[in-house]
Design a protein that fits this description.
The protein is α+β, with helices and mostly antiparallel strands and 482 residues long. It is built from 20 helices and 12 strands. α13 runs antiparallel to α18.
Amino acid sequence: MRAVAVASIVVAAVIVRRRRQRVGDARPVSQRSRRARNLELAGLGVNLGGAYASAEARKMFASAERRIEIDDALKLRTAEQVAARLGNMKGALMKVGQMASYLDDGLPEPVRQALAELQADAPPMSAQLAADVVERELGGPPDKVFLEWDPVPIASASIGQVHRAVVTDPASGVERAVAVKVQYPGVDKAIESDLRNTELLGMLMRQSFSGLDPAELSEEIRQRLIEEVDYRIEAVNQQHFADYYRRHPFISVPDVLPALSTRRVLTSELVAGHTWRELLAWDAAERDLAAECLFRFVFRSLYRMRAFNGDPHPGNYLFHGDGHVTFLDFGLVKYFTDDETATFAAMVQAAAVDHDTAKFRRLVERSGLLPPGMPVSTEDVGEYFSQFYEPVREDRTMTWTKEYASSIVRHTFDRSSPIAQYATVPRAFVFIQRINLGLYALLGDLGATGNYRQIAEELWPFVNGAPSTAMGQREAEWLARR
């Protein structure tokens, strides 16, 4: 898993650098033939296989320290080869790289620099190309469809860019500013084609988890990314969250304008706010409130909406002070069944509340995270998975740090753990892990302080605890009015 993260980050950085050399690109995303991509992947597989065999041979007579150096060098060479061969995947690998962004701490400096580039805005497409997309999708040029249209995007990312525009509200007749997300032409087809090649992802992941069957995991990632390039799905997701959190005291989600939204254009209300970088400069009290809002949003959405917004990226939030946060970008959303959310809750209860490792192991095996009867002790199972629940296992005030968040990541991907030999990741858990580790990284960046066990008890359906903070009291009053 760590190997695929390193590879994804470096590949995506190459893509960002190449695109930055073409600011205002006037061309659609290029697509080579399926046969050409398959030939490149076949050649890449041969090269990676040879490098792996060579590294294993050198490790046979090396010291423990030298074996680690050989492994790290192999991962970096693997990333470089993947970058060289798959640099044309653009949106797909940028998204996968961002999904691996919580692994930045402890990585080699070149990879850290690559990650920093991933988190910045990508260069925009040309004004004419964006206008062409709007005309094809909405039936007229932007200056005819909208009262005002700014041809210079206010944000750009892996698969599209955002423009400011003005429309007349059909209900009130009042002019209102909107955000119009325009998809890069051709990126949807490129992603759909290239993500069929999941064998490479599986090969890289087996370097860290020898017992992992990557088929379900690869398919889950592929399906979510394909959904993300259909803005009609994102519009439904975003409006679902907007409706649920309507009039919430500190959680906001912009409403969608469905009449101006299509497969490749998404129009929603424009919200002004402060960025993540600006938030980091605020005082500790404000950062703590923002962190509490992020935590409440993630776990209330999971347990009450049975939905996960699986992209905890710093660019997807706007901050307004006093804990008020606007949440953006709902392209990567996972919905869960009642049985799946019941399983998540039961695992939390066994691990964090009852501290019952035997029961927890049974739940882990039943969920598919670990095959039954593996030759590992119940204590090892409890210790390995307990890291995820550590912040809520005890009723105490804690301060998140970058080092603490990174230690959870390192523990998760520690190949020396006996659990890593047998563990797998069922589809229901793919983005649970992503959001947990991503959220922990954000809280670590903020240096957030709070009693997260008490906050969690308000959100756990098997506890329904009383409000433990001022924000909790405001949320309880909102719930009572719903």
